[in-house]
Amino acid sequence: MASLNLLSTQGCHLCSLAIKLLNDSGTTFSIIDIVFDDQLVKHYGDKIPVLIAEDAEQALFWPFDIQQIEQYKEHYGIS
Question: Pfam families from the xrefs (predicted)?
Fold first, then answer.
């Protein structure tokens, strides 16, 4: 089963909102701080927070809501 990651960084107020939303939805996820990976900064630095399933071809970009999170999880077979 794929895991779910939230691309984030310290001090990102939108990331804090996304974390709260994910927690409220009961979603299990890991937080990846993009500051430690130059490629993530290059691709997502101006787009965080970004929700992405492991090995996914498509990410879920902010803003997203609980319904979109659930649809994304269903698409990638995440319970």
Answer: Glrx-like
